[in-house]
Amino acid sequence: MEDLILAIVKPLVDHPDDVSLHAEETDSTYFYQLSVNKEDMGRVIGKQGRIAKAIRTLVYAAGQKADKKSSS
User: Fold this and answer.
1) pTM
2) How distant, in Å, are the alpha carbons of 11, 12, 32, 56 from that of 69?
3) Would 33 disulfide with which of 13, 14, 22, 50, CB 3.0-4.6 Å?
């Protein structure tokens, strides 16, 4: 799952080395915290949060296959 998120986010940003992902897992939930360079925040969020929502949707769909809920 982490690889999926990083594969989506790294091509979007100007500073891919500054991208970090912290993941926590419980019995029924994955929790992901993504950090990017301040200059790249707008690119990852997108206009009106569209890119962020799309990333959440993809992570949620991938999490359904693993029978766990995803949270970001």
Assistant:
1) 0.79
2) 26, 25, 11, 11
3) 22
67 DSSP assignment: T
| Cα–Cα distance measured from residue 26 to residue 18, given in angstroms and rounded to the nearest whole number | 26
How many Å apart are CA 48 and CA 27, to the nearest integer? 33
| 4-61 pLDDT tens trace | 999 999 999 999 999 999 998 888 777 889 999 999 999 999 999 999 999 989 888 8
User: What are the structural domain ranges in the chain?
Assistant: 2-71
Q: Is 49 left (phi over 0), alpha (psi -120 to 50) or beta?
A: left
Cβ(66)–Cβ(47) below 8 Å: no
Query: Given this model, what pLDDT does residue 67 score?
Result: 65
Q: In the CATH scheme, what is the code of domain 2-71?
A: 3.30.300.20
